[in-house]
Amino acid sequence: MFATAIIVFREVLEASLIIGILAAATRSVPNSRRWLIAGLLAGLAGSGLVAAFTDVLGSLASGVGQEIFNSIVLGIAVLMLAWHNIWMSSHGAALAASAKSTGRNITDGTSECSILLVIVGLAVLREGSETVLFLYGIAASNDGGQNAMLLGGLVGMLAGIAVGYLLYAGLLRVPLRWFFTATGLLVLLLAAGMASQAAHFLIQADLLPSLAAPLWDTSAVLPESGLPGMLLHTLIGYDSRPAGMQIVFYLVALVSIFIGMRLVSRPRRKSFSK
Amino acid sequence: MKRALITTLLLPFAAFAAGILLISLLLPNVALAAGTEFSLVIRDHQFEPAELTLPSGTKIRLKVENQDATPEEFDSFSLNREKAIAGHSSAIIYIGPLAPGRYPFTGEFHSDTAKGVIVAQ
Are A90 and A106 in contact (CB under 8 A)? Predict the structure, then answer.
C-alpha cells in the first residue's frame, strides 16, 4: 500500500505543482478558473486514452513512440508556458491594477485562458496516463490485496494534490508587489525544466546526442527519489544525472523566454507609467 | 478577440506538425545509430536475467519484453531512464555509453519483485 501511495504521489505531484503555479499566476484573469477545470477534465480524459493505447504508442517509430509523444507534449507545453509568461509580462501592470480593484476587467483574457487549458490539459495528460496505467495494472491483477493498494493510490493522489494546493495558497500570500515577479520566475523555471525533460526523452529515443552523460552526478547528495529532489525536479527541472544536451535545452528555453518577456514589457511599462 | 482565440488554438497544432516533421527527418538516423542490442524479459513481475552484463563505453539498444498481462514501468535512477511497457508488448530503451559499474533498475509497478542490475564492463 505504501509503495502504491508513493508511486501515485510522484505522478500526481508534478501535475499538481504545475496547476498550483498556474492557478496562482492567473488568479486575476477573468474566467481562468473555469478554463483551468476544463483543462483538468480534458487532461483526465486524454490520460485514459493514452493509457489504453500504450502498446500502440510504444510500438510506433521503431519502439520509441512513447518518447516521441512525451517530447512533443513537453515541447508544446514549453511553447505555451513561454507564451503565457510573455503575455503576463505585457499585461502585468493591468492585472495588478485589477487585482487591487476588483471592479476593473482585463480587456482580453480569452487567448490567455485557452493557453491555460492547453497547459493544464497536457500536464494532467502526461502524468495522469502513467497513473491510470499503474492503477489499471493493480485492478487487473489477481494478486489479492488490491483494495489496500487502491487505497494507497488514493492516499498518494490526495497527498500530491495537497502539496500543489499548499504551493498555490503560499503564492497567494506573496505581496502583490512581488507577486507577478514570483509567479513569472516560477513559470520560467518550469518551462526550462520541461525543455530539459523533452531533450531527455529524445536522448532516450536515440534521436538526439547526449553530449556527455551524465554531465554531473549529485544523486548521492540530492537524489530524485527523495521528496526535495522530487519537488526540485518539477519546479526547476533538477536532474541528478543530466546529459549535456539537457542543459543546452534548459538554457536555450530559459534565455529565450526571458528575452521575450523583457522585449514586451519594456515599451508597455512606459505607456502604463503616467 | 476571436482571432486571438483561433491563433491560440492553432499554435499547438502548428507546433505539433513542426515536431512531426522534425522527427520524420530524424527517423532515418535511428536505424543507423542503433547500437548493440541486448534483451530483458519481464515474467511474473521479475526480470530475466536479473543481472545483465553489458560492454561499457558504447551505446546499447535494450529491448524489454513484458510477457505479463499487466503493464510495467522500467525505471532506473542510475541509468536516468523511465519507460512504461504495456502488457504483452516490448519496448526499446537506448542507454549509454556507460562508465564501468553497476546500474540497478526496477519495475516500478512491482518494485518488491521486479529488480535487476546492469553491469557495465
Answer: no
Of B23, B31, B88, the CB nearest to A68: B23
Please state, rounded to an integer, the average pLDDT across all residues of chain B.
Answer: 83
Between chains, do A239 and B26 touch, taking CB under 8 Å as contact?
no
- In angstroms, rounded to a whole number, what is the distance separating the alpha carbons of residues A69 and A202? 10
Please provide the size of chain A in residues: 274
Contacts of B5 in chain A (CB under 8 A): 110-111, 114
Nearest CA in chain A to B19: A72
Which of A47, A67, A79, A111 is the best substitution to test chain B (most B C-beta atoms within 10 A)? A111
Res. A273: pLDDT tops 50: no
Q: List, edge to edge, every strand of the sheet that includes B101-107.
A: B51-54, B115-120, B101-107, B72-76, B81-85
Task: State the pLDDT at residue A272.
Answer: 47
Q: How many CB atoms lie within 10 A of CB B102?
A: 10
- Dump pLDDT digits (tens) for A137-167: 888 876 677 888 889 999 999 999 999 999 9
Burial of A52 (0-12, 13-18, 19+ CB in 10 A): middle
Query: CB–CB of B71 and A137 under 8 A?
Result: yes
Question: Helix A176-204 crosses helix A2-25 at what angle (to 10 degrees)?
Answer: 130
